[in-house]
Specification:
about 300 residues; alpha+beta; Phage tail protein beta-alpha-beta fold; Jelly Rolls; three-stranded mixed beta sheet
Length: about 300
């Protein structure tokens, strides 16, 4: 009414009309008093129905025992999961870093780039178990009473003492195992299918169609990534460039008919893409190498 002048007149009229609302109303005091007395009398005559519930001694002890069992279970689960997880060691590598790891049992592991190796502080169980994501080469300390097991996302490799390589990158379609010395048992987790690999054996599991290859012969490219120096003897350039692509993500574009079968011979003291490509240009006078951009090269010419 203060801010809207046009509303003042109708609101004043409504206000005055309300003065006459039920002016003829006369309350019945005696009737109301009688109802109140009746309610009071009814309340006094009604017994108190509230119950006091007591817990029997046996029920009380049962509840205490249940609480104790619950606390013990929580403590057990804490020790099982939290404590064990805290004692797990982990080595993770980047795209430019490889790591040499000494395990608690004396085994040595070379962890390739883009990989992750997990293992306990001490091997206390019946087995020495490690988990691998990526690629690593294992030189396992012999212990017939405590087998060494490498677990990947889809397979398990069990050994007593040997030297072998495992490639199990999650983004790749394969899991490969190559044995340099001794023997290993390769098993698929899903089907429990198992193959025994001896020295110089290799096997590949294709995750796309869930097939396991026959046992093959070990190739120099399978474990060359961990070597500090490389000795190439009549290796075709196609194999050399495939090695660069697999282990260093370096791609070389070349004419496969003219250059693919060119035999490459070189002893390299550095296992790097730069050292390998530099030696290729020295080995063949008529080839020319151009760097298109980082990790991508163009090779032209012939090896005649």
């Amino acid at each position: 009414m203060q801010h809207q002048e046009e509303n003042k007149a109708p609101l004043d009229k409504l206000w005055h009309l309300s003065e006459d609302y039920r002016n003829d109303f006369q309350p019945d005091v005696d009737k109301g008093l009688a109802k109140l007395k009746a309610r009071i009398a009814q309340t006094e005559s009604t017994p108190n129905t509230a119950k006091v519930v007591s817990i029997k001694r046996r029920q009380w002890f049962s509840r205490i025992a249940a609480s104790v069992v619950f606390l013990l279970a929580c403590g057990f689960l804490f020790n099982l999961f939290i404590k064990d997880t805290a004692s797990l060691q982990q080595v993770a590598t980047t795209d430019t870093l490889m790591e040499d790891v000494l395990l608690p049992d004396g085994s040595v592991v070379w962890v390739n780039k883009h990989s992750q190796l997990s293992f306990p502080k001490t091997f206390t169980g019946a087995e020495r178990i490690v988990q691998l994501k990526g690629e690593a080469f294992f030189k396992v300390a012999k212990n017939a009473n405590q087998p060494f097991i490498v677990q990947t996302s889809n397979s398990q490799i069990k050994v007593l003492g040997t030297e072998f390589n495992v490639r199990a990158y999650e983004q790749e379609a394969i899991t490969a195992v190559e044995v340099e010395e001794g023997s290993v048992a390769f098993m698929l987790k899903a089907t429990k299918e198992q193959k025994i690999l001896a020295a110089n054996d290799k096997i590949v599991f294709n995750k796309t169609d869930a097939t396991l290859s026959a046992v093959e012969s070990l190739d120099w490219k399978d474990t060359a990534w961990k070597a500090k120096q490389l000795d190439f003897v009549d290796q075709p350039l196609s194999a050399v460039f495939a090695y660069l692509a697999t282990n260093f993500e370096v791609e070389v574009n070349f004419d496969k008919e003219k250059l693919g079968n060119c035999p490459f011979n070189a002893l390299l003291v550095k296992n790097t893409p730069e050292a390998i490509l530099k030696q290729v240009t020295k080995a063949f006078d008529s080839v020319k190498l151009n760097e298109v951009h980082s990790k991508y090269y163009q090779l032209s010419g012939t090896c005649d």
